[in-house]
Amino acid sequence: MAGVPPTIADLAAATPATRDRYVDFLRAFSIVTVVLGHYFIALIHWEDGRIFVHNVVGHQSGLWLATWVLQVMPLFFFVGGFSNLVGWRSAVTSGGTVGGFVAARLRRLMRPTAVFLGVWVIIELVLRVAGAGADGVLRSTFLPFGPMWFLVVYGFVVALAPATIRLHDRFGWRVPVALASGVAIVDLLRFGFDVPGIGWVNLALVWLAIHQVGYLYADGGADALLVRMGRRGWGFMIASGLGLLIVLTNLELFMDELFYPRSMVGVDIEPVSNMSPPSLAIIGLAVWQIGLAMWVREPIRRWLSRPGPWQGTIAVNSVIMTVFLWHLSALLVTIIALHPLGLGQDTTATARWWLERPIWVIGPLIVLAPLVAAFRRFERPG
Length: 382
Fold this sequence. Notes:
Helix content: 55-70%
Radius of gyration: 22 Å
Shape: globular
Strand content: under 5%
Strand order of the largest sheet: 1-2
Number of helices: 18
Distance between the termini: 14 Å
Number of strands: 2
Order of helices and strands: HHEEHHHHHHHHHHHHHHHH
């Protein structure tokens, strides 16, 4: 019927045979993992009416190993590289311009983000007028604006996509190798020579390098370099990525000045972080995770050919930005609701903290559902 938006089933039925469903799955998987991970690892602190969320990884022995699997931001940037190259090729074919392509891509990010920020500005104003101590919420270290760093960096990478695609067309795999080499040099200056502020250069180099690897999957279909590598090549990526992580996270045994934390997420007890700014360890993480993603690609693609899994993937992707933007707001509301009931009181990884984990995963998801229902329209108008 004219004017009636298509259902998820309609979209699934209309999926062209040429679409790589696995890319959509990886995008959904990475964001869902980030959301659930944030809920799971939260150590809640109240200080003078302000809410802080710290990371349990630094307080529980051995939990850092889970971050080698569940820190999946590299997968999102890898998928972004695939999508941006495919989108650029389509834009060029239809006579599009660089400005039009970048504007269209950024608009998809900025529209729901502008609504998110606008709502929180209103909340800030209302709380200030009411004298409810809004500074305690909005000046927190993490809630509710944790996603903002990612959106700024990803927007930067998208804006450079036409230029980095031209580099890919000319130099291929040499571009991510060069960028990764730059990351190593920056780390050497950062850790070995204590050059102030130099580590923040890697905020661009690391994510551009991983994004560039996505081009190696997108360009050429079945003949794409990352596809042609086959299981032996993917196995080499897994082994070399893990090997690099093992070497880097044990360097302090031989050279005190070269210290890489074992955790791939920031923890409050470490003097430095592998994520802020990103280090060469994130390159190792990306190499092993992308190798693993390629290794399991075929069985998951077969699974996605079934209606149920593919419709679920479409459903998640249809609200993915909304979920990402609002998931920490949902956690904040849950904290405010449950803390007076005696939940979320432990500030370290006690037995009680572990027993409460189902509540602190399910509770924010329940709060998140109506937020997604209310704001999803701004992600995909019409």
